[in-house]
Amino acid sequence: MYFYVEKAFIRDTYLKLSIMTKSRLWGILEQISKRDLREIGDCIRSPHFNKREYVVKLFDLLVECRETLQIIPDKRMLHEHIFPNLEFSDSRVRSAMSLVLKVVEQYLTLKVIEEKTAGSSLALAKAYRQKNLQKHYNQTIRFTEEILEKKAHRNADFYEDLYDLEYEKYQSLSAQRQLNTINLQSLSDKLDIGYLSQKLRQTCFSISHMRVYSMEYDFGLLPAILDKAGQAEYQAIPAIALYYHGYFALTNPNDEYHFQQFKKQLFDFGYQFPKNELRDLYLLATNYCTKRVNEGSPHFANESLDLYKEALRQELLLTDGVLSHITFSNITAIALLTEDYSFTEAFLEKYKKSLLPKYRKPIYSFNRGRFEYQRGNFDKALDLLQQRLYKDLLLNLSAKAVMAKIFYEMDAVDLLTSHLDAMSQFIRRKKVIGYHQENFQNFISFLKKIVEVPDFEKENRSNLKVDIQEAKAVAERRWLLEHV
C-alpha cells in the first residue's frame, strides 16, 4: 500500500524549495505504466531485491508525487520524509535514490528477458549446462525449440535466436566431447541467414536515414551480401528477400521491378514481422512512392494509397491510439491526388479523433479545407481555411496557398492579387527562412506571372512553364504547371 503524505505539507515544501533537477530515476518513473509501478513496488518490498525500509518509503513517496500530486519532488522533501531525524544530506538522498534506481532497472531488465521467451529459456539452458544437469538441459533445449517453432514472427531477430540456440547446442556437444555429432554446418548456416537479414535490414534503414539527413555511410561487405542474398535459397526467406528488393528499390528507384517485389513480399509475408518493424517497412515503402510522385510519376500515388490503406487496416500507424498529424496530412494529400474522395472523407472523419488534442482542430480543418477545395466547394473550403487556427507557420502558409488557388479558380483577380501581396508580407514579417521562404515566395511569384501573362502569348507562357519546372523549390508546383 502506498504512503500518502499530507498535501498541505507537500505544497508548502514545494513552493519554498527549488524543484529537483530531473534525475535518471524520475525520468523513468514519469514514463512507465501504472502496471509497471505496481510490479516495481512488489520488487521493492521483496527481500530478494531490497532489505532497506527507507527505500520502500522513498519509492512510495515518488509514486505519490507522480500519481496524485503531479509534481517533481524536491530532495529536501524526500530527505525529511525518509530520514526525519537526520540533518539534510544531498549524498544520502542520492544514495537512496540510486538504490531505488537499481531495483527499477533490475525489473526492466527481467521484463525484457521474460518477453523474449526464447532468450530466457536459453539462459536457463546455459545455467543447467554449467551445473552439469544434462537431463534438465535437454528438456530446456527441446522447450526452446518448441517456442521458436511456434513463433509467428520470422524476422532477423528470429534468425538470430535460431543461431543462439544452435550455438548453445554446440557448446554442450563440445563440453561432452561429442565431436562426431558436432553441428558446425548448421551453426554456419544459421549464422549466414541471421547476418544476411540483419545486414540488409540495417542497410535499408540507413539509406532511408541518409536521404533525409544527407549522411554518408560505409556499407562494408554489402556487395558480397547482395550477391549471396540474391541466390534462390535465400530469396525463399522473406526476412532476406523483402530487404533485398527494398535495397534495390531505394538505390535504383526508376527500376519498378524491385519495388513491386518489395510490395508483394510486404503484403504476402508482413505477418512474419512484429508491428514496430512492419510499420517502418510501410513507411519506407510510402516514402519511396512519395519520392516517385514528386519526380513526376503520378501513378505511384495509387501505390502509396494502397500501402496506407493496408497499414491503417492493420493499425500500424497509430501509437497508443494516436496518429501523427504529419501522417494524417500525407494520407489526405495522397488520397486527394488519386481522387479517391469517398475514402478521403471517411478517413478525415474517422481519424480526426486520433490526432493529439493540440493538433486536432487545425490539422482537421486544413485537410478538410483541401478536400472541399478539390471537390469544388470553394465557399466551404474558404470557411475552413480562414479560421484562426493555424498557429504553425508552415501550416498557415499552406492554408494561404490553397486559398490563393481558390481565388484564382474563382477568377477573383483583385482578391487574388491582394491575397498574394499579404501572403508575401506575412513571409517577410514572420521571417520564414531557408527552403520554406523560397518555396512559397516562388509560388507567389509564379502565380502572379500566370495571371499577368495572357493566354495568347504562347512563347511567354511556354518560357514560364520551363521556369516553374526548373525552379529548385516551389510550393504547389504541379498545380502551377497545370494552370500555366
Tag the structure with descriptive keywords.
single chain, 484 residues, mainly alpha, two-stranded antiparallel ribbon, 2 strands, flat
Explain this structure to me?
The chain is mostly helical and 484 residues long. Among the domains are: 7-115, no CATH class; 151-208 and 217-297, no CATH class; 406-484, no CATH class. It contains 25 helices and two strands. The protein has a two-stranded antiparallel sheet. A hairpin with a 2-residue loop joins strand 1 and strand 2 (322-323). The longest helix is centred in the middle third of the chain and has 30 residues, at 184-213. The radius of gyration is 30 Å and the shape is flat.
How far do the termini sit from each other? 72 Å
Number of helices: 25
- Biggest beta sheet summary: 2 strands, antiparallel
Q: Helix and strand succession?
A: HHHHHHHHHHHHHHHHEEHHHHHHHHH
Radius of gyration: 30 Å
Overall form: flat
Tell me the strand order in the biggest sheet: 1-2
Low-pLDDT stretches = 1-19
Fraction in helix: over 70%
Overall number of strands: 2
The portion of residues forming beta strands comes to: under 5%
Class computed from helices, strands and strand pairing:
mainly alpha
Mean pLDDT: 89
Task: Describe the secondary-structure layout.
Layout (H helix, E strand, L loop, with lengths): L6 H10 L7 H8 L2 H12 L7 H17 L5 H8 L7 H26 L1 H14 L3 H17 L5 H20 L8 H30 L8 H8 L2 H4 L2 H14 L4 H14 L5 H20 L5 H14 L4 E2 L2 E2 L1 H13 L3 H11 L5 H18 L3 H8 L7 H17 L3 H17 L4 H19 L5 H13 L6 H7 L1
Antiparallel strand pairs: 1-2
Helix pairs in contact: 3-4, 3-6, 4-6, 5-6, 7-8, 7-9, 8-9, 9-10, 10-11, 10-13, 13-14, 14-15, 15-16, 16-17, 17-18, 17-19, 18-19, 19-20, 19-21, 20-21, 21-22, 21-23, 22-23
